Amino acid sequence: MLLDVQDLHVDFRTRDGVVNAVNGAGFSVDEGETLAVLGESGSGKSVTAQAVMGILDTPPGRITHGRVLFRGRDLLTLGREERRRIRGERMAMIFQDALSSLNPVLSVGYQLGEMFRVHRDASRKEAKARAVELMDRVRIPAARERVNDYPHQFSGGMRQRIMIAMALALEPELVIADEPTTALDVTVQAQVMDLLAELQREYRMGLILITHDLGVVADVADKIAVMYAGRIVEHAPVHDVYKRPAHPYTKGLLESIPRLDHKGGELLAIKGLPPNLLHVPAGCPFHPRCPQVREVCRHDPRPPLYEVGEGRSSACHFWKETIGE
Amino acid sequence: MSDVPQESPEPILEVRGLVKHFPLTRGILIRRGIGAVQAVDGVSFDLRPGETLGIVGESGCGKSTVARLLMNLERPTAGSIRYKGEDISRLSGRALKAVRRNIQMVFQDPYTSLNPRMTVGDIVGEPFDIHPEAAPKKDRRRKVQELLDVVGLNPEYVNRYPHQFSGGQRQRIGIARGLALNPEIIVADEPVSALDVSVQAQVINLMERLQREFGLAYMFIAHDLSIVRHISDRVAVMYLGRIVETGTDQEIYEHATHPYTQALLSAVPVPDPELSRSREHIILVGDVPSPADPPSGCRFRTRCWKAQALCAEVDPPLAVPAEFTAATGPARHASACHFAEDKGQLVSG
Question: Crossing angle of helices B140-150/B120-130, nearest 10°?
Answer without folding.
Answer: 120
